[in-house]
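tool_call: predict_structure(chain=1)
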Amino acid sequence: MEQRRRAFAGNSDVSFGDVNLSEEGIRGAPHNPGAGGWPTIRYFNKETGVDGGTYKKVTDKAMCEELGNDELMTAYVEEYGGTSQCSVDGETGCNDKEKAYIAKMKVKSVEELKAQQLRLLNMGTDKMKPELKSWINKRSKILKQLLSTPKTEL
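tool_result:
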């Protein structure tokens, strides 16, 4: 978990917190700590507000083992935080491959970006190695950021 905290340290969309239930008595709906086992993982974003949302497991592994997997934890934070570890704005958190892709895509028109996004979406349903699937997801997140930025700022 500490590694994930460091990975998202520069991302203003994400913060992590721990609640010690012996000191902070949170009880009742919608939080219900301990319901479904420990640890109780909740996320809070604009859609959930202060009530938050409950983490939904994606594997049959124990929760601590599932979220101990860097790739699964990163995917969880990015999905529910509506963010990406690689930020197009300033290219913080991006590796060299992602930076090269950003540079290549920044010069494209909105129509070309949308076409790339559709192409990746269609490719995402194909059977492929996990590394390739991960690269498709990373490119999709980059394109989403580029499309949400007015073209004059690119």
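agent: The two ends are 34 Å apart (CA to CA). Proceeding to next step.
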